[in-house]
């Protein structure tokens, strides 16, 4: 059994006749708004059936977790539920791709999916910055404009791509938050409020080896790396002149980081308010 979710639906695929018949019977018995044919049944959301939906989804979650998988059904009770029976060899071409969100980037973990699939997705975003992490079998895509979200949603809402059935696994709440934050941070109001201040703080960014367009996470990572290099404890056996030089550099790094923290805190508060 394989399960995937989009914003609107939860889809269950199985190649087991017995399991399909069991689940189909449960759906037919407990839900009224359904469409069905020989190999598929669809249950549409009905508010009065939420208790039955919760029980059904709890049962599905247990079955899926017995296979060693994880399933978040928090919002699934509001979705269209689709159950399909597939041929026994069809599930061999099912791929699972995990999606995470970081700043203005989407991180795709390919898992069992061939690397060529990354090229297939990225060909739709030729003007966007992207990079592939060979070691961890991941690739990242940087969002460049609002319309990128329309294309992303179209891709991850489809299950059939090339010769594969693809499960895109992601947290829907985090995806909505990711879109919202991106749009706020790229709004004219946000830019006019923080661009001038970022320019005033540019020297502090430069001390940390960053640009004034970098995120707090990038600045923090750079600070931690530099603080480790110049920390006085690492140079206690060196000459006094070197120790003094490194200590001064360390203090400068700390001061720059502390000066930038309120700037990013103000950005964070602005985004929360929206």
From TrEMBL:
Residues annotated as domain J: 203-274
Stretches assigned to coiled coil: none
Entry-linked Pfam families: DnaJ
SMART domains: DnaJ (SM00271)
Protein name as annotated: Putative dnaJ-like protein
Lineage start: Bacteria, Pseudomonadati, Campylobacterota, Epsilonproteobacteria, Campylobacterales
């Amino acid at each position: 059994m394989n399960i995937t979710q989009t914003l609107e639906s939860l889809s269950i695929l199985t190649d087991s006749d017995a399991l399909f018949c069991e689940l189909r019977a449960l759906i037919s018995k407990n839900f009224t708004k359904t469409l069905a044919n020989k190999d598929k049944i669809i249950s549409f959301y009905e508010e009065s059936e939420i208790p039955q939906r919760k029980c059904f989804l709890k049962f599905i979650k247990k079955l899926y977790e017995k296979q060693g998988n994880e399933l978040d059904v928090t919002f699934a009770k509001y979705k269209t539920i689709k159950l399909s029976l597939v041929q026994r060899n069809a599930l061999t071409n099912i791929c699972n791709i995990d999606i995470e969100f970081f700043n203005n980037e989407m991180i795709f973990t390919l898992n069992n999916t061939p690397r060529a699939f990354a090229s297939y997705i990225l060909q739709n975003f030729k003007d966007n910055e992207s990079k592939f992490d060979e070691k961890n079998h991941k690739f990242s895509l940087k969002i460049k404009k609002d319309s990128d979200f329309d294309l992303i949603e179209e891709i991850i809402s489809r299950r059939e791509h090339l010769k594969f059935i693809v499960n895109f696994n992601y947290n829907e709440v985090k995806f909505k938050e990711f879109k919202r934050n991106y749009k706020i941070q790229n709004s004219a109001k946000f830019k006019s409020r923080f661009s001038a201040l970022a320019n005033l703080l540019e020297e502090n960014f430069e001390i940390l080896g960053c640009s004034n367009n970098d995120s707090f996470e990038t600045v923090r990572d750079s600070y931690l790396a530099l603080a480790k290099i110049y920390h006085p404890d690492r140079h206690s056996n060196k000459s006094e002149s070197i120790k003094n030089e490194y200590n001064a550099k360390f203090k400068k790094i700390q001061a720059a980081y502390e000066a930038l923290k309120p700037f990013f805190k103000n950005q964070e508060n602005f985004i929360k308010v929206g």
